[in-house]
């Protein structure tokens, strides 16, 4: 063998050795894939939760087909229907009566028949009306019954119906036609011919019962940004109450503090030189007020949360289990997220937890904003919960669930990935203690929480709805507001109603009030309400009687009647309020769950207001009433357009009935006053704009149930803290060497628009 050959072989051998060494040295630096382990199996019958499941797309189609063939009247697809037509406005699950459901869930009774609630607009009748029909059984309907009169104690007048997308389109066409009567004014004020201006509705539609008259505010429409910050100062009042669209009229015009009878009158004043005009140039691209486009190149990725061995929760159909928690979830297309049969360690804590309404009430010196009281349920809190952005709206590793709805169309639609479920590490101990006295040890538990989230976009605002389940047996409900503020054209004494946030933009003050229904069943259906608070008493010290001590003591009281349990908004209420069971825990105290409210609500409408009864739930931060099947909701989608004669008035629920050992419901109002400021541009941030409440165990258990959590950590000074068996935290380094599998980014949220 030649020397040259030997040298070549030797070189190859050295190269091979070097490569192997490199592989060995870098092997641990290359993360392995995370090993997916199935979550702990819990003894829960998932199919039972289907009694609360939202309608499927197939069931909706079957109901539409049934109604078309069995009502004996022509039905026009709602997407094309005029006010003078008959149409199917919406479908939703008809939730069975509680007694029937509990017999099925708890006593082996028959499964309640599955039914749909159909809302129909009958415009092509001698007496136009809104009718609600229950249709069943699903999936193959064979009957229907009219529940309108029984449910609302009378017929539903046609003018109370929510405004449809088709109706808004016809109004927009009318406004654009009317704008053509003021061409020189539009060029001077807005550099526009009117076709590039967009209208924003206000609500309610009128000023007295029977009206369907609405102020519309006009804005510059800038593609790619929120038009809500670019008012042009022009607002129009449209009468759209007639069943014939051709008879709708523009009743009034407002511009920068002055009112006119028509756009022709506005043009005449301008041409005569009697109208002062503020010239607004058409906003351009990224320079427009409120642009959300990034101003800097992307930074390195921030921290990511991942699950080294897969999710520790389980989702099947509409049912979730997680470390002792069990919950059925759904989405009402109008009122939004709803949860049922919430159990912890096999015991039902809450039968129903549901969002009821979101009120946004504005102030301004412009007519549109000053008359606005949005009741978002009538627009569709659940319907407008769109697809969530993976990695921002929810963690990348979250479980995403599609939601189906049928509204203003005969064809079901799907909001893909519009609800997410994930476990969240808050980076805060749930509990901990470091002992530096006597024995030396550390004990603690990470605050890891299961979160159910949806986000609704209601015109300009985005509401983030969170339901959180803690290892301590506590349930947290939270809502954050973000999105764009709504604005008025700045003129006159505009700062009496907000702050100037742009050259001609007034951020108008408003309040957000949110209402929830909480049907607690604490250790059974029969509960009472107990308050606890502190007082001081002055006593002589018992050991010498020479000194006086200010001694705090606990004042307990059982509230006997509904009037006592209705706590006005913004008035101090007892710091501890609990639903109590007749049964004691190990220490002799009644098993209870405490309601703890976190809120910064504004002032409720004055009682002298003609529309106050329609939002009378807002009188109270908490009201506890006896549960009644005929009082399923604190409001109605029909309250928006006739708040002067409300279809449902929550105040009527409170009639001083006894609340001792009864099936009770807590009705909770949370909210905040928002005075927009410069930092609300481009968007309102979630920081400081979150409110909600807790349901916390109070003597329900004999000790904190989180002591049974497998995530607990304890080690002492006598242990080898680096040993994985003795200290779970020592195991993290090996568990964290895996890399999560993140699916490729995809977003289809624009497809349904």
UniProtKB/TrEMBL annotation:
Keywords: Copper, Metal-binding, Oxidoreductase, TPQ. GO terms for cellular component: plasma membrane. Pfam families: Cu_amine_oxid, Cu_amine_oxidN2, Cu_amine_oxidN3. InterPro entries: Cu_Am_Ox_Cu-bd (IPR049947), Cu_Am_ox_TPQ-bd (IPR049948), Cu_amine_oxidase (IPR000269), Cu_amine_oxidase_C (IPR015798), Cu_amine_oxidase_C_sf (IPR036460), Cu_amine_oxidase_N-reg (IPR016182), Cu_amine_oxidase_N2 (IPR015800), Cu_amine_oxidase_N3 (IPR015802). Its cofactor is Cu cation. Topaquinone (TPQ) is generated by copper-dependent autoxidation of a specific tyrosyl residue. The keyword Oxidoreductase applies. GO terms for molecular function: copper ion binding; primary methylamine oxidase activity; quinone binding. The modification 2',4',5'-topaquinone is found at residue 461. The keyword Metal-binding applies. Residues 305-706 form the Copper amine oxidase catalytic domain. Contains 1 topaquinone per subunit. PANTHER family: COPPER AMINE OXIDASE, RETINA-SPECIFIC COPPER AMINE OXIDASE. Belongs to the copper/topaquinone oxidase family. This is Amine oxidase. The lineage of its organism: Eukaryota, Metazoa, Chordata, Craniata, Vertebrata. The gene is Aoc3.
């Amino acid at each position: 063998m030649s020397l040259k050959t030997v040298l070549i072989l030797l070189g190859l051998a050295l190269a091979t050795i070097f490569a192997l060494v490199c592989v060995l040295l870098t092997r641990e630096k290359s993360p392995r894939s995370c090993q997916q382990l199935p979550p702990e199996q819990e003894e829960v019958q998932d199919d039972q939760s289907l009694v609360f499941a939202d309608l499927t797309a197939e069931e909706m189609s079957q109901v539409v087909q049934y109604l078309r063939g069995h009502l004996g009247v022509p039905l026009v697809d709602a997407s094309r229907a005029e006010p003078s037509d008959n149409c199917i406005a919406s479908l939703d699950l008809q939730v069975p009566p509680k007694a029937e459901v509990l017999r099925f869930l708890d006593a082996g009774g028959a499964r309640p028949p599955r039914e749909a609630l159909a809302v129909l607009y009958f415009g092509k009748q001698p007496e136009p009306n809104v009718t609600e029909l229950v249709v069943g059984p699903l999936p193959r309907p064979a009957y229907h019954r009219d529940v309108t009169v029984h449910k609302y104690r009378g017929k539903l007048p046609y003018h109370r119906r929510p405004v449809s997308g088709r109706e808004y389109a016809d109004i927009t066409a009318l406004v654009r036609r009317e704008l053509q009567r003021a061409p020189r004014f539009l060029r001077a004020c807005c550099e526009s011919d009117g076709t590039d201006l967009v209208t924003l509705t206000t609500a309610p539609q009128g000023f007295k019962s029977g009206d369907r008259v609405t102020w519309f505010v006009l804005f510059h429409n800038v593609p790619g940004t929120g038009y809500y910050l670019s008012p042009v100062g022009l607002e129009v009042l449209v009468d759209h109450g007639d069943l014939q669209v051709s008879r709708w009229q523009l009743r009034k015009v407002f511009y920068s503090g002055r009112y006119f009878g028509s756009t022709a009158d506005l043009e005449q004043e301008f041409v005569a030189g009697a109208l002062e005009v503020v010239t607004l140039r058409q906003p351009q691209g990224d320079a427009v007020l409120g642009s959300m486009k990034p101003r800097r190149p992307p930074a390195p990725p921030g921290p990511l949360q991942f699950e080294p061995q897969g999710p520790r929760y389980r989702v099947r159909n509409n049912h979730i289990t997680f470390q002792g928690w069990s919950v059925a979830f759904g989405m009402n297309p109008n009122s939004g997220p709803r949860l049922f049969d919430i159990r912890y360690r096999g015991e039902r804590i809450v039968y129903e937890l549901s969002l009821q309404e979101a009120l946004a009430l504005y102030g301004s010196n412009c007519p549109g904003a000053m008359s606005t009281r949005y009741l978002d349920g009538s627009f569709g809190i659940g319907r407008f919960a769109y697809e969530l952005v993976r990695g921002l709206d929810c963690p990348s590793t979250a479980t995403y669930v599609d939601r189906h709805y049928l509204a203003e169309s005969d064809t079901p639609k799907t909001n893909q990935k519009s609800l997410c479920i994930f476990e969240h590490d808050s980076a805060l101990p749930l509990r901990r203690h470091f002992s530096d006295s006597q024995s030396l040890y550390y004990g603690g538990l990470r605050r890891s929480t299961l979160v159910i989230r949806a986000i609704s976009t209601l015109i300009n605002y985005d509401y983030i709805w969170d339901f959180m389940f803690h290892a301590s047996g506590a349930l947290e409900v939270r809502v954050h507001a973000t999105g764009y503020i709504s604005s008025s054209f700045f003129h006159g004494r505009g700062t009496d109603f907000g702050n100037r946030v742009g050259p001609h933009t007034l951020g108008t003050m408003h309040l957000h009030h949110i209402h929830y229904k909480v049907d607690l069943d604490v250790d059974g259906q029969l509960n009472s309400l107990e308050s606890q608070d502190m007082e001081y008493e002055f006593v002589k010290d018992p050991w010498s009687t020479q000194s006086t001590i200010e001694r705090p003591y606990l004042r307990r009281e059982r509230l006997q009647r509904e009037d006592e349990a209705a706590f006005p908004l913004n008035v101090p209420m007892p710091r501890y309020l609990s639903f109590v069971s007749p049964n004691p825990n190990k220490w002799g105290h009644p098993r209870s769950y405490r309601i703890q409210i976190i809120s910064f609500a504004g002032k409720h409408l004055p009682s002298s207001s003609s529309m106050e009864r329609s939002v009378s739930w807002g009188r109270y931060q908490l009201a506890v009433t006896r549960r009644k099947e005929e009082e399923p909701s604190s409001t109605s989608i029909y309250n928006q357009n006739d708040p002067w004669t409300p279809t449902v008035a929550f105040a009527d629920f409170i009639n001083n009935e006894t609340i001792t050992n009864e099936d009770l419901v807590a009705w909770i109002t949370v909210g905040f006053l928002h005075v927009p400021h410069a930092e609300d541009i481009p968007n309102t941030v979630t920081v400081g704009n979150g409110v909600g409440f807790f349901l916390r165990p109070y003597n329900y258990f004999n000790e904190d149930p989180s002591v049974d959590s497998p995530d607990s950590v304890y080690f002492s000074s006598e242990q080898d803290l680096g040993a994985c068996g003795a200290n779970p935290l020592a195991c993290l380094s090996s568990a964290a060497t895996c890399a999560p599998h993140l699916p490729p980014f995809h977003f289809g949220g624009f497809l349904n628009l």
